[in-house]
Amino acid sequence: MKKLTDTEKNRYHRQMLIPGWGDEGQEKLKDATVFIAGAGGLGSPLSIYLAVAGVGTLRICDYGSPELSNLNRQILHDDTRIGRNKADSARETLTRLNPDITVIPLTEKITDETLEDLVGASDIIVDCLDNFDTRHVLNRFAVKHRRPMVHAGVYGMNGQMLFIQPPETPCLWCMHAGSVQVSIFPIVGATAGVVGCMEAIETLKYLTGTGSNLKGCLLIWDGSTMEFTKIELQKLPDCPVCGKIKA
Q: How many CB atoms lie within 10 A of CB 96?
């Protein structure tokens, strides 16, 4: 495990004071690699807070380009980045925030055929996408390769989050089978900020071994009332993705 430099100990001092974190937890972050699917509304706050927390390598994947209507929530980018690839733009922002980490921009589209190379040796997958077809690609890969995955989604002033730990927990298909028609949907930038930050917390807890993850429960947040609800999920015995995967 890579040892922390004096600069890193100073940079991360306040989070290292958290019980159970310390030098060992921070060294785990330094050694960790996270695959981030999407550099948009959720991927922006997630990757920013993973970067400043000292996660050693971020593999951030997005084949799209920011548009003006994205900028109310996609805070990795600004007016000068319109038309550029989002993953490349993300790398520029994140390395400026923390030059001690490695950011690998991945500009290919996520498919069943490309995903293994894109994910590489990442310790955890974080879903920051906006369509269920591609989310199910991530889910199939996570279950097959037994990689933990954090899922989240946002709409308007609402959000949801789920921690998937194959083969222990229900997978995304157990919660949401099939696809959804993709359309332009309402979204407040701060909604993506709240839920993306919660994804960051789930990821950091997993990597450091601090706290407990949201396994087997769907967390729903209603921003209009500031209410949180947890719904317990069950594995579907006939799930085509995880139903035959044994512990």
A: 9
- Interval 145-173: pLDDT, tens: 999 999 999 999 999 999 999 999 999 99
Report d(CA 230, CA 244) in Å as an integer: 26
The stretch 33-58 carries a mean pLDDT of 98
Summarised one tens digit per residue, pLDDT across range 73-123 is: 999 999 999 999 999 999 999 999 999 999 999 999 999 999 999 999 999
- Amino acid of residue 118: L
Tell whether omega for the bond before 45 is within 30 degrees of 0, i.e. cis: no
- Asked if 62 contacts 47 with a C-beta cutoff of 8 angstroms, the reply is no
Tell me the CA distances in angstroms from 229 to 72, 147, 164, one per residue in order: 27, 26, 18
Structural domains for the chain: 32-232 (3.40.50.720)
Distance CA 240, CA 245 (A): 10
pTM of this prediction exceeds 0.90: yes
How are strands ordered across the β-sheet holding 102-106?
102-106, 57-61, 33-37, 124-127, 149-155, 158-164, 217-222, 227-232
Strand partners, 57: 33, 102
Angstrom distance (rounded) from CA 80 to CA 92: 12
Cβ-based neighbours of 169, under 8 Å, separated by 6 or more = 163, 215, 216, 233, 235
